[in-house]
Hints:
Distance between the termini: 28 Å
Number of helices: 13
Number of strands: 24
Structural class: alpha/beta
Bound molecules: cytidine-5'-triphosphate
Amino acid sequence: MSLRGKKIILGVTGSIAAYKSALIVRLLVKEGAEVKVVCTSDALQFVTPLTLSTLSKNPVYSTFVADPETGEWTNHVELGLWADYLLIAPLSANTLYKLVHGQCDNLLTAVYLSAKCPVFLAPAMDLDMYQHPSTAENLSKAKSFGLRVFESPAGELASGLVGPGRMLEPEDVIDNLLKWVSREHQLRGVSVLLTAGPTREKIDPVRFISNYSTGKMGYAIARDLADRGAHVILVTGPTSIELNHPLIEVISVESAREMHTECLAKFERVNAAILAAAVADFRPVATASHKIKKNDASMTIELEPTEDILADLGQRKKDQILIGFALETNNELAHAKAKLERKNLDLIVLNSLNDKGAGFGVDSNKVTLIDRHNNILEGQLKDKSQVASDIVDVLCKLLHANNRS
Length: 405
Ligand code: CTP
């Protein structure tokens, strides 16, 4: 996979890592891309337009008015629409803020707002800036918009501090881009039903039974699927995660019953379903219409089982790939394999609660993937986005095998 014929805008912002942008241009050109560079005025304090224009063989753009004498201007809309990919490397904390808040006070942010292509960000800033809660929030917002963030590795920073914040090395930026480009259309034309988050089972108008699920794992899968071109129908219980991706259709539900209804309605039309939601197994038999008053007597809530969505889809399955999750605390492999058989699944994702850093609410997870042929893929503790990618890799293989049979 190369970048031959691809039109790439490299955005450069005011960070000391801007000196590495020259090498990025060089590598992009070497991969066969046509490159135009858009710099912020601060970026030009670190690197000269002459270097970047010589390497890219194109003028470097940095202002709306190209020539004040003639009034010639730089058409940001045309530039934005010209690009197949927009890569901003290095991305400063300031420009990151502007991107996620739609602030448009320079040529680069105007090009970004006009662009319809995939956007890649390689943040670069000092340790304390990178670790500031505002930066974390802005990065998470950027991801929720579908922007691809090339995570900053730990290392020695220009300030002398050591930690995360530095930009990926230019070679790694290109590797990440190539990896993404090679997967971009992998699932084009495929539709996937996905469940995520917890469900809430009402006791009365102000109380419910639920669980600790935050939806992070399911939403990471949604993003990975959409990044590979799949159309995703995400049926989600209540979470606080923002997601705004053109290929992800979000259906918000509250209870297991609502999730069940939505999933059954959509299942027939999809190629695969991944059920990552932590569905409540029981709900109150009756929901009080008024807030239950406390009194001295003890209280008992009678529960009944909820619909087993995964098992129902397993029964209805024709040629869809069906993937379920299992959370086991003992005899894990045996229980997961039994669940795979019982619910007629193609793959089961075994979550381990015994590992520190895995499970509810955290950003990392450790899973084991088991298929119908007893192939077992034991994973390491990884960021949930990487775990999502591993799961979707296996889905791709299963869909491929399905198409051949
Ligand atoms: N699941 C579901 N509907 C339910 C309960 C669970 O679709 N009412 C799905 C989950 O989304 C997950 C899988 O089933 O993909 C595993 O759920 P789990 O609670 O571990 O399995 P159970 O079948 O409830 O088995 P057990 O409680 O015996 O472990």
